[in-house]
Amino acid sequence: MDNYEERREFVRMPASAKAVVRQNRKKWDAAVVDISPGGCQLLCSEKLKKEDPIKLDFILNEQDPVIQIQGKIAWTKKHESEPLWNHGIQFKEREKFEKLGPMFLDYLAFKKKMNLLKKVK
Questions:
Q1: Is pLDDT at 94 greater than 90 in this prediction?
Q2: pLDDT (tens digit, 9 = 90+) per residue, 60-75?
Q3: In angstroms, rounded to a whole number, what is the distance separating the alpha carbons of residues 84 and 92?
Q4: Which residues constitute the domain of residue 23?
């Protein structure tokens, strides 16, 4: 039996969105794997160091404004099959999730609805 103890304060919900990671003067694209009020999981090509500060720009669609949140790298793990890295991000500005959370839920509901419509056609 696995002795892994869940340390998250919040439950994460699956996500499928884009983000831009900014660190120092560098920036690169990432995929948001899951998200909660306390943080998110990203998949990107850069290996980041635990505890490093970052800034995230969440991009849901062209109609909604980009939401920027500061955070730090909580953990890092090499992706199983590709030259990519999974990173756990801990948000420093949890209050911004109050704005981001409903937008993510609306976006995910829209994507689910569109996928269902594709299956019907």
A1: no
A2: 767 767 888 899 999 9
A3: 24
A4: 13-116
